[in-house]
């Protein structure tokens, strides 16, 4: 296997799949970052802070456990769903998912994905905002969707790349950012780090 070009500070299978799609040799690094919105933060500030915190935690972990890894960049990312300035994260249970999906039903919302690439010396963060429109959902559709297991680990209680895709009437922005990792922006940022 080729040398590691990048570390991924995320356990998301979707982010791993998308980073593989970009063709990078990477290793996952496990980080534990508390995802707690501060009352003074906008949604944009919050999601960007989380991606920076994850990347920074990854840099700290890599520098503590790997030799000569200080120059290998770490990628941290976070995705939130926002409707009426309300942040929708991963659902706690069915009632929480039901509340979120009812909020999204029949209207537009925003998906914000922030990506940070960092080393011990430098850091770059980019925010990608995509507008998403949902069809009107019935109680039965919401319940069946929850029973599929798909919403349980996803911001806003849905995944665009899975069964949740059938709820979406249109998007304006990056499909891959809604999945969790905007490909174009991520590739440009990683290349900026690797070309130094």
TrEMBL record:
The keyword Zinc does not apply. CDD domains: Maf. The record marks 14, 79, 161 as: Important for substrate specificity. The keyword Hydrolase applies. It is an enzyme of class 3 (hydrolase). GO terms for molecular function: dTTP diphosphatase activity; UTP diphosphatase activity. Its cofactor is a divalent metal cation. Belongs to the Maf family. YhdE subfamily. PANTHER family: BIFUNCTIONAL DTTP/UTP PYROPHOSPHATASE/METHYLTRANSFERASE PROTEIN-RELATED (PTHR43213), BIFUNCTIONAL DTTP_UTP PYROPHOSPHATASE_METHYLTRANSFERASE PROTEIN-RELATED (PTHR43213:SF5). This is dTTP/UTP pyrophosphatase.
